[in-house]
Predict the 3D structure of the following.
Amino acid sequence: VDFHITKLSERLDTLREILAIERKATQ
């Protein structure tokens, strides 16, 4: 497994979580 790709997917998951939390806070 490419280490770089793994790190990118981890960051994407984190960003999605943050976006979801911000949306809940806004609504």
Q: What stands out?
A: The longest helix spans residues 3-26. The chain has one domain: 1-27. Residues 15 and 27 are 18 Å apart (CA to CA). The chain has a mean pLDDT of 92.
